Amino acid sequence: MTAPRRALRLLLATFAVAALLLLGWLWLRPTAEPSVDGSVAVAADLDDATPLSDDPAAQRIAVDLRRLADDSMEGRETGSRGHDLAAAYVAAQFADAGLEPAGDDGGFFQTVPLLRAVPQAQGARLAVTRGGRTIELKLGEQFLPWANFNAGTHRVEAPAVFVGHAIHAPDIGHDDFAGLDLAGRIAVLLPGAPQAFDDQHRAYHSALQEKLAALAARGAVGAVLVSTPESEARLPWARQRASWQNAAMRLRDDDGGPVDGFPMLQAVAAVGVAAADLVFADGQRPAAELFDAARAGTLRGFELPGTLLLAGRTTIGEMASRNVVARLPGTDDLAGEQVVHTAHLDHVGMPAGGEGDRIHNGALDNALGVAIMLETARTLATTPTRRSQLFVALTGEEQGLLGAQWFVTRADDAGTPVANINIDMPVLLAPSTDIVAIGREHSSLGDAVVAVAEELGVEVSDDPFPEEVTFVRSDHYAFVRAGIPAIYLDGGVISADGERDPRRALAYYLRNCYHQPCDDATQPIQYDDAARLARVSAALATRIGNDDARPQWRDGDFFGERFAADGER
Predict the structure, then answer these.
(1) For 283, which DSSP code?
(2) Which of 372, 480, 471, 472 shows the shortest CA–CA distance to 420?
């Protein structure tokens, strides 16, 4: 494309974004009046959270975060008007930084087709029939039905089989399905993976998508996921119960059906740890023994007597959301290759129920990540690299990495992605001196991030909570599954003042404010640390963008061996 045509295209896209922003502000005028320059008016009580920083980058990040986490964005739920407004703001920032639109039809937006499903209380049942009796579990208190994307109503009654963690890992001699017949049966399983697994196997095999795929492949017709004490310590049943009727989403295929909908599984439900013994009643072992065996690594599957019945109703509808995509073109013959930056824009919106503030602003999760990515884009716009730099504010992460999956399957349309740098929920609530680079052990990106961090005087720390299997829980994993080396940059864990502990701040946040209204811009966010993370991200992208060689998976790496093509390892 010639320079004049590129400039004209960028000018037109900028006008379109400005118009969309104006419409958005007018739409939400009762809750957020636009100022003279078109920006959102920020609540006065945010003055208390003003960063004590002379760093212009920290100040810009603070401004972006406050816009994206403002009440006018209504929690940025995927497909909502608040998310659309946030997407328009991000597109405007990309245009202002001088980036080219790289979405659909020459614009900044990439449409992501979705199905939206909401499970209903009416008709929901989980019944255990064995030993001449039927045990009806109580909806909400003891079990929660999952949304069914394949049918508005479902009812399945079948024999049940306990399948442990539902893991088939022949490379390490582990098979929870050995000697068990799942065809036409309902699988009962535990979340997670054995503690004896190394971090890579635990991360991969803990992913629920892998478990459900394994069950469907073996002919199971339903699944019951029984919580453990450990899983409820991380995600309490009370919180699951409060959110069970929030909308679930899946990508929508060309035929209008769900992508990864597992139609073989006619019903899926969750059971709280307090009700686990009801599922295993009259079986070989009580729930407590099974939990102990899981911890000890001696868990074995077995057939359960009698039958389980799962029934429910789901309201299903079509919808769409948008990724925001922008490009900094490369400078030479490597411009057809792309370093892809990602941060998810969506959050969980305004869930029904509860009292008081219903807006889940998602300041740390992930308005801060998007703000850091925007600052990275501004930095790189001043020093283009040989490879193109692509920036994507993704939708649908909270629903299962949906925007990332959609983007990755179409990424080659605009060039070849060679690396992904992802930023998600940096919990910067206590000053630190380091950063965390999740997944650095898997590819040469780990060496690159250590090198650039050293040049900047920043230490790189390991994942502080590997048991959370974060490597498979954010958007970069969609790139990993496509064989593309990826790294996830996160906040540090080494205290800068010896008093405020970043690890404790992270633990507190996860327990109290993760996916809660208190994740807002009034938190003591360390914007200087955010600016440092943006500098590391920009330096890493510059190194990747100018290097002759593409990033490579490490020899023998679990994810590289599983997902990369032979010539790309």
Answers:
(1) S
(2) 480
Res 225: pLDDT: 98
- Residue 329 in tokens: 């073109």
Answer whether residue 48 shows pLDDT above 50.
no
Sign, Cα dihedral of 86, 92, 98, 100: positive
Inter-residue contact 34 to 41 (CB < 8 Å): yes
Residue type for position 332? D
Residue 466 — pLDDT band, cuts 50, 70, 90?
confident
Q: How many residues does the chain have?
A: 569
E strand map for 256-412:
267-271, 302-328, 337-344, 388-394
Give buried/exposed letters for 471-486 (b at 16+ CB in 10 A, else e). bbbbbbbbbbbbbbbb
Give the whole-angstrom CA distance, residue 505 versus residue 374.
Answer: 25
Q: How far apart are the first and last CA of the chain?
A: 33
Beta-ladder partners of 133: 130
Choose among 4, 24, 1: nearest CA to 12.
4
Task: Tell me the β-bridge partners of 115.
Answer: 250, 318
Token digits for 2?
């010639």
pTM for the predicted model, two decimal places: 0.89
Question: What amino acid occupies position 421?
Answer: I
**SS3 of 13-60:** HHHHHHHHHHHHHHHCCCCCCECCCCCECCCHHHHHHCCCCCCHHHHH
At 239-294, the pLDDT tens digits run: 899 889 999 999 999 999 999 999 999 999 999 999 999 999 987 899 999 999 99
Please state, in angstroms and as integers, the Cα–Cα distance from residue 361 to each residue in 67, 372, 409, 431, following that order: 10, 17, 30, 22
C-alpha separations of 108 from 23, 330, 403, 515 in Å: 17, 18, 14, 28
Strands 416-423 and 486-491: parallel
- Cα separations (Å) of 263 from 112, 223, 246, 260? 22, 12, 21, 9
Nearest alpha carbon to residue 205 among 186, 218, 217, 192:
192
CA 428, CA 532: separation in Å to the nearest integer?
A: 11
